Amino acid sequence: MRLSDIAAKIDCRMVADSDIEIERIAGIDEAGPGDLTFVSNRRYVGRIKTTRASAIILAEDLAEVPIPSLRTSNPYLAFARALELFYQPPAPTPGIHRTAVISEGVEIGPNPCIGAFAVVGARCTLGRNVVLYPHAVVYPGAIIGDDCIIHSHVVVREHCRLGARVIIQNGAVIGSDGFGFAPLENGSYYKICQTGRVLLEDDVEIGANTTIDRAAVGDTIIRRGAKLDNLVQIGHGSQVGEDSVLAAQVGLAGSTKLGKNVRAGGQAGFAGHLEVGDNAVITAQSATSHDVAPGAIISGSPAIDNSVWLRAITAFARLPALVRRIRDLEKQVEQLRKSGT
Amino acid sequence: MRLSDIAAKIDCRMVADSDIEIERIAGIDEAGPGDLTFVSNRRYVGRIKTTRASAIILAEDLAEVPIPSLRTSNPYLAFARALELFYQPPAPTPGIHRTAVISEGVEIGPNPCIGAFAVVGARCTLGRNVVLYPHAVVYPGAIIGDDCIIHSHVVVREHCRLGARVIIQNGAVIGSDGFGFAPLENGSYYKICQTGRVLLEDDVEIGANTTIDRAAVGDTIIRRGAKLDNLVQIGHGSQVGEDSVLAAQVGLAGSTKLGKNVRAGGQAGFAGHLEVGDNAVITAQSATSHDVAPGAIISGSPAIDNSVWLRAITAFARLPALVRRIRDLEKQVEQLRKSGT
Amino acid sequence: MRLSDIAAKIDCRMVADSDIEIERIAGIDEAGPGDLTFVSNRRYVGRIKTTRASAIILAEDLAEVPIPSLRTSNPYLAFARALELFYQPPAPTPGIHRTAVISEGVEIGPNPCIGAFAVVGARCTLGRNVVLYPHAVVYPGAIIGDDCIIHSHVVVREHCRLGARVIIQNGAVIGSDGFGFAPLENGSYYKICQTGRVLLEDDVEIGANTTIDRAAVGDTIIRRGAKLDNLVQIGHGSQVGEDSVLAAQVGLAGSTKLGKNVRAGGQAGFAGHLEVGDNAVITAQSATSHDVAPGAIISGSPAIDNSVWLRAITAFARLPALVRRIRDLEKQVEQLRKSGT
Questions:
Q1: CA-wise closest residue to B117 among B153, B141, B88
Q2: Which residue of A has its CA nearest to C336?
Q3: Quick check: helix, strand or coil at residue C123?
Q4: How far is CA A290 from CA A101, A256, A273, B248, in A?
Q5: From A171, which residue of chain B is nearest by alpha-carbon distance?
Q6: Which residues have C-beta within 8 Å of that of residue B185, sequence separation ≥ 6?
Q7: CA atoms of B217 and B225, how far apart (whole Å)
Q8: DSSP string of A115-184?
Q9: Contacts of B207 in chain A (CB under 8 A)
Q10: Among the listed residues C255, C282, C253, C289, the one whose alpha carbon sits nearest the alpha carbon of residue C268
Q11: A140-183: per-residue pLDDT in tens?
Q12: Residue B341: pLDDT over 70
């Protein structure tokens, strides 16, 4: 595809002596002749000099570069759109596969793609353009919004509700029973019926093998635009705010509410019954059992203010030396005391 | 349902001026007119004054409250039983679905519910009232006890054994191969055949996408009444004691034995070949590579006594200040030494 | 089986007064009369005196023992091979099950075992002796090498490639979409099409419910002989080197490259865009956001040199006492200053 055609389609301004043919999109280190690459993170600006790419997508305000460039205010978005010009994943097969089991009373909107061995329980509703890949299972009474994409081996449990354009990667479980048990006098537990629903609002994406539990009462809610990576655990009755981003293996215990635009690094954990303010950040492998103020950046286990933590962990590595210094001080003070008497 | 009827059915004593109609069970903050709520945790007693619920389940020994109450020695259990009066999950379809594949030599007890595309391997035995939701897979030679409930996309591997009333949430894997490899001289590994079984005793519940490995020799055992949350990893040959409770994303390496009533917080980890005593507690995101005494409460990574850890992490956050104090002391001591000469 | 026959088949030298009949292979603590056991870890040599086993596999250079022994330079390997003499897992059913859905244009090598409800997408290639257990799903365009074993509920996504003898335990997801989103001005995110592939080279084993993401551009690669335990997360564009071993619940963010023979303990984490050298070790529940030198052993979160960390965590547990010692020093120094004036 001509670079000028790409520029037009992804709304970029072309800066080039001559138009060239682009064959592929590639990362800046892997790119070679015929490739279009990009820099969105300013840390990688230095690599522009050494890339073998034939052209590059760049921010408007970056200096001139020796190769043809496509200029835009959002290079990462332009890269994403350029990718779509060169690649589309295999389209799911239109229609309802002959082996799919659709229960009675199911309503299905126009243009479904329902794959082999998909199961849709009684009284479910599927919007228009819904894709259920092979082996997707929807329990009775669930509602799947327009344009949702449900990958193979996903389970959507009874009465759960998905908004529009929700994407669920393989193996994720939406609406498994919350971990609720009433202790009995003999030390054993009585299972508490989990009557709540899981609600995934519009434009949510759920990663592979992630699990989101239903609650005994009330709903577990993932709000509009939130993105959850793989192997994330969301406990019963928790809420994840709009446009929040949870990296892989993050865990939320029950009844914790994350605000908007909260970001959690990989393997981070939240105890139950917390309030986490808008725009808060918890870094990877950190954990908090306290509420988090809006905009706070916290780290550690238990998590504290990130800037304090950074200094504390630096000191931590020097603890053996600190112990020696204290011991030396004690000796010197003892000597001083003796010599003073 | 009349409050008096609920009281009778869940074995509570009603304290009310007049009988009222209850429409729903709800949490204390969400409850409104027509709702029955509960307080089992004394931390929430203060909220009784502000709840809009029409009635409340309470401990016998709590003071009088301004709304009708149902009194019992175990309010959390009473709440659980009240929930069942108002909600039942959709019943699985009785019988064996026409698409299920049941191999030769399988014995199935009375009243099965075997869903679409379920697969039961050769020589398996299923007790009475067993529920296999659609897409449950049982490998050859497994035994599933009476009244077990196996959700969609669960796998029970060859020769594993489930007692009675075991519940397995979606996507859990029972009996995957243990992580056992013999190192060869050239740095590669030889896979060790995993011949052991996984045994889940009566009344065990396993969370969504949890994995429990079989061992090379000997059994991996989850004992009576133990509850495992989602995304938990149980390594080959480990044992979890009766009524133990493991929160989400907990990991046990191989050959570790947890006693009875052990409790592990989310994301906690146990190294291999450990003995953990009855009633021990490891708090969230902690990890131990040492045996744990019965009744111990441990925290941190590596975990130490919880009360020591609480003081140590408080000091940790003040490490930068401690470093300054040591530096000050060193200066002062140096001055004292100089002035003393 | 006669001990002498076992010795011949697993290439050991028999040291025994008389040949005996062996009925079972067992661990050293569980073994009883008729059992053959083994010691490969020198920590367990002391238990040879107390084992009730009838015979034992041992290193050539260990001293004489009171029971018959099989001597070899690699006792753990000999144990693995002995196990295979006594146990074979149930063989998968040969052929292609009548319910399997094989799309057009699929090439299948000789001697397949394709189980019930397996789905193979368009234009896939399967080598010889490939085993797809029931409910395995292969998206279009994937390539599965000779002698691969794919367990139930595994998904291999579009265009992914598996070498020879790859084993994938149940529920693992190979090639789910990487967690890539371009931030928009309004705070929401634009999903980036993930065009890369996941490549699993020869002799790789992937644990149950592990997830390996595809990248926006370029491949995610697990190199020859690497072993990944259960519930591991491999982010988009990362690479795991030859013969590397990742324990359960380990997480790699995106674009991180592990060298050869890297070992990661359970629940360890690697941030994105890192280089980890050959033979590096990160211990359980540790995490690094820095490159790791070849052969380094690191611990902690954030991880530092293991020997430094060991001393630092010892000091950490004594922090409350250190604080008291500093306070005492301050008082004494204050007194000395006063008395000096």
A1: B153
A2: A337
A3: coil
A4: 46, 10, 9, 19
A5: B171
A6: C74
A7: 24
A8: -TT-EE-TT-EE-TT-EE-TT-EE-TT-EE-TT-EE-TT-EE-TT-EE-TT-EE-TT-EEEEEP--EEEP
A9: 176, 179, 211
A10: C282
A11: 999 999 999 999 999 999 999 999 999 999 999 999 999 999 99
A12: no
* Cα–Cα nearest to A177, from B82, B170, B85: B170
Q: Which two tokens stand for residue B85?
A: 């009066």
**Set of chain A residues whose Cβ sits within 8 Å of the Cβ of B86:** 195
Amino acid making up residue B165? R
Cβ atoms within 10 Å of B21's Cβ, excluding its own: 10
Q: How many CB atoms lie within 10 A of CB B61?
A: 7
In DSSP terms, which residues pair with C251 in a beta bridge? C233, C269
Per-residue confidence band for A34, with pLDDT thresholds at 50, 70 and 90:
very high
| pTM summary value | 0.97
Structure-token pair, residue C268: 């360890």
- Using DSSP's 3-state secondary structure scheme, residue B4 falls into helix
Does the pLDDT at position A340 exceed 80?
A: no
B188-212 residue pLDDT tens: 999 999 999 999 999 999 999 999 9
Which residues of chain C from 36 to 65 reach within 8 Å of chain A, CB to CB?
none
The reply to whether residue A225 touches residue C181, judged by beta carbons under 8 angstroms, is no
- Is A85 part of the contact surface with chain C (CB cutoff 8 Å)? no
**What does the alpha-carbon distance between residue C8 and residue C24 come to, in Å, rounded to a whole number?**
17
Quick one: C21 exposed, middle or buried, by C-beta within 10 A (0-12, 13-18, 19+)?
exposed
- Whether C299 contacts chain B with CB within 8 A: no
**Is the predicted ipTM greater than 0.90, yes or no?**
yes
Is the separation of the CB atoms in B271 and C284 below 8 Å?
yes
- Nearest chain C CA: its distance from A186 CA (Å): 31
Angstrom distance (rounded) from CA A7 to CA A306 = 41
Contact criterion met (CB < 8 Å) for C336 and B339: no
Answer whether B332 touches A (CB < 8 Å).
Answer: no
Nearest to B320 by CA among A24, A313, C119: A313
What are the φ/ψ torsions at residue A6 (nearest 5 degrees)?
Answer: -60, -45
At a CB cut-off of 8 Å and minimum separation 6, what does C139 contact? A90, A152, C121, C155, C156, C157, C158, C159, C160, C175
Question: What positions of A carry a catalytic annotation?
Answer: 236
Is the CB of residue B253 less than 8 Å from the CB of residue B271?
Answer: yes
Residue (of A139, A131, A129, A91) closest to A115 by Cα position? A131
Residue B140: list chain C partners with CB under 8 A: 90
Across C169-256, where does the E strand assignment appear? Answer: 173-177, 181-183, 189-191, 198-200, 205-206, 211-214, 220-222, 227-228, 233-234, 239-240, 245-246, 251-252
Contact A317, C299 (CB under 8 A): no
How high is the pLDDT of residue C341? 56
Kindly identify which residue of chain B lies nearest to residue C84, measuring between CA atoms. Answer: B193
The answer to whether the beta carbons of residues A105 and B120 sit under 8 Å apart is no
Task: Tell whether B247 is within 8 A of chain A (Cβ).
Answer: yes
CB C58 within 8 A of CB C75: yes
State whether residue A141 sits within 8 Å of chain B by CB: yes
pLDDT of B258: 98
At what angle are helices C319-340 and B319-340 packed, to 10 degrees? 30
B169 near A173, Cβ under 8 Å? yes
The C-alpha atoms of residue B50 and residue A213 are separated, in whole angstroms, by 28
Select from C90, C207, C249 the Cβ nearest to the Cβ of B140. Answer: C90
Beta strands C269-270; B275-276: pairing state: unpaired
